[in-house]
Structure formats: C-alpha cells, structure tokens
Amino acid sequence: MSSMDTPSNTLQDSDLHDLGLSDDEPETATSVLNKFQTAWINEKLSPEILPYQGDYVECLMEQIKHMDNNVRKLDKRDLRSGLHALELSRIKYMLTDYLRVRLEKIEKYTYTILEAESNRSGDDLYLSEGEFQFAKDFFGNTQTALQTIALRHFPRPLASFDPAKMSVQPPMNSYVFVKAKKEVSGLIVPTHDPEEQDEELDLEENSQHILPYSSVAALVKDGTIMLI
User: How high does pLDDT run on average in the chain?
Assistant: First the structure.
C-alpha cells in the first residue's frame, strides 16, 4: 500500500470521539481522515504553501494520544492491537509529512510567504503561529549569515541585501494533475501567449486533467478541485 492510499478501516469512529470540527454536525473518523488526507496530498503536490489545516492537525494529534493509550491496553496477542498500531503509524506519518512539507516550502520561499502573510489577517492566514515564527526566525538568521559570511567582505555598492531581488518564487504556472470533485463551468486557463486567447474549460465531476496550477489554485483551496 502506498503512502498516499486511503487509510484502512481499522480505525473506528469511536476512536475519534467528540471531534467538534463542525457547528452543524459532528465529524466521523472516516470523514476527518479523508479530509486531512486530501489536504496532505494537496500540500505535497501544490507548488505554493496552502492554508494551514490547524483544526484537523490538532484534532488528530489529540486523538492519536487517546488511541495510543487504548492500544496499550489491548492484549498483544489480540489481532486488533497490531491493526490499530499499524493504522496509527500511517496517521502519524501523514501528520509528520504534512508538517515537514510545509516547513520545506517555508525555507525555500521564506520572503515570498512572509510578504503574502503580512497582507492577510484572521481566518485568511495561511501559517500557524509556530510556522510564522519559524519563518521570521529563518529569514532573520539567513540575513545575519549572509551579512557575516559574505556581504561584509564585498565592496560597499555590492554589500546591500535586497530580499525581494534574492527571493525564490513558487512556480505557479507549473502543470499539475487535478481531479474535479464537483462540476466546474467556465474555468479560464491562460495560454501565456499574447497571440492566443485564453482557453475556457468546463470540468465534469470526477474528471481528471493536466492544467497550470495558477488556473486552479483558488479551486484547490476551496475544495472544488484536488491535486492527484
């Protein structure tokens, strides 16, 4: 089974109790894991950093502790012990990898991410508090290292540090594989050729396509489209 396959059904809804992620109705274990798995895959395959799924991360981390305690109480000879332990390992891997991928993007696109984040507020923020602090510290340490190791040895006209000029931008126009979770009408796909008109597409539910990420970025974030 690959790391991106759907988690097995050994995890029961009773293991994820009182999720409290929706004001309308409680989430089940299956729905929480499916939604987080989609967020994980989207994050891995997206060229830019996506909004932090803090509710699901915190929920799963808390419930993992609860489930760990339950597994320890089972007899080692009980088949359920091995199945639940395996399932927990998979969930822990997804959580760890999700956070690792985000930190890698922060390290690679630090200035770009911080600049974009400074223009957001409240529920529109993409980074968790910890990630934002990490990004600021990483950026400051990078500046200090450059100044200490290299820039102070350069002639004065070359010794300035302009992060905007040195920053790396995510490849937003790179092509990605996508799957439409619902029908999409009138999707505009830019051709980036002044002599050609932008293309307009209609995507059927569950259809799969290869498209520039920039044309579907907003739909990935609102859950209409997922990356595959």
Answer: 86
Structure-token pair, residue 146: 């450059």
Is the model's pLDDT at 10 over the cut of 50?
Answer: no
- Give the pLDDT of residue 1: 38
Q: What is the pLDDT of residue 192?
A: 74
Q: Is 192 exposed, middle or buried (0-12, 13-18, 19+ CB in 10 A)?
A: exposed
User: Which ranges of the chain would DSSP assign to H, the alpha helix?
Assistant: 29-45, 54-73, 79-108, 110-118, 129-149, 163-166, 213-221
**What is the rounded distance in angstroms from the CA atom of residue 140 to the CA atom of residue 148?**
12
Percent of the chain past pLDDT 70, that is, above it, reads: 87
User: At 11, is the secondary structure helix, strand, or coil?
Assistant: coil
What φ, ψ does residue 50 adopt, rounded to 5°? -100, 165
Handedness of CA 107, 113, 117, 122 (dihedral sign): negative
Distance CA 82, CA 129 (A): 36
